[in-house]
Specification:
- With 231 residues, the protein is mainly alpha-helical.
- The protein has a domain of 149 residues: Lysozyme.
- Helix content is 53%, strand content 2%.
- It has nine helices and two strands.
- A two-stranded antiparallel sheet has the order 1-2.
- Strand 1 and strand 2 form a beta hairpin.
- It is elongated and about 85 Å long.
- The termini are far apart.
């Protein structure tokens, strides 16, 4: 008689290494799926294009983009925005200029008109002029020329391709030109292009640390603006 194999003995169990490999493949597929899901999430959150104002953004998103990014008006706590209506009058500016015997006496209304036109509080423009040259009275001011006249450069704006310059700085024919160009520079190159509008953000760019004491400059502008503003 020949001995026949039982049905169970005819099936050979899989080797242990193959069972292990199958288990690893299952976990590998699962891990790949998790990685794919995480990658999609990260891309959607950080890299996918987001709606901007004027496209498919919601009304509050449009308002946020417009008012805080392109044309910011509100400063973060502890910051000082230069934007807004005048907190100083033309008469008060003229009084201050006379008090310091400034060569720019009589220009009070110009500071006000330009500030309103560019939506910049004139008290900050005057404070910049004060810090840069003591309202044009500092004998070391770079705006003085050899013939005793001045460049009328209230903010010591560097030449940077301007049509007329004196040394490193722009040279204006009148105080009105100099005052206007300061407002234009701040409005276009800082508020519009860079999206910054506070004393704390503007000054480190306007007067970099490598050639100025930035913290002193910021404190000076804030102090004069506070001192000269109407109560």
């Amino acid at each position: 008689m020949t001995r026949q194999r039982s049905p169970s003995s005819s099936r050979r169990s899989l080797p242990r290494w193959r069972r292990t490999l199958q288990g690893c493949n299952t976990w590998l597929v699962f891990a790949c799926l998790v990685v794919c899901l995480v990658s999609v999430f990260v891309w959607r959150v950080f890299f996918a294009p987001h709606p901007t104002a004027g496209t498919d953004s919601t009304p509050w998103e449009s308002l946020l983009n417009t008012s805080l990014t392109r044309n910011p008006r509100f400063a973060a706590p502890g910051s000082t925005s230069i934007r807004g209506t005048p907190t100083i009058t033309a008469a008060r500016i003229d009084e201050i200029l006379r008090l310091y015997n400034s060569p720019a006496q009589g220009t009070g209304q110009i500071w006000i008109d330009e500030g309103i036109a560019y939506d910049i509080n004139p008290v900050y423009a005057l404070a910049f002029f004060m810090h840069e040259s003591n309202l044009g009275t500092n004998p070391e001011w770079s705006g003085w020329k050899e013939d005793g006249t001045s460049t009328h450069n209230v903010g010591n704006i560097i030449c940077a391709g301007y049509s007329r310059c004196h040394g490193r700085f722009r040279d204006y024919a009148t105080w009105q030109e100099g005052i206007h160009d300061w407002y234009r520079l701040i409005a276009l190159e800082y508020i519009d292009q860079r999206g910054i509008h506070t004393v704390e953000d503007i000054i480190p760019v306007y007067a970099p640390e490598f050639e100025n004491d930035v913290e002193t400059y910021i404190g000076s502008v804030r102090e004069y603006a506070l001192q000269w503003s109407a109560p």
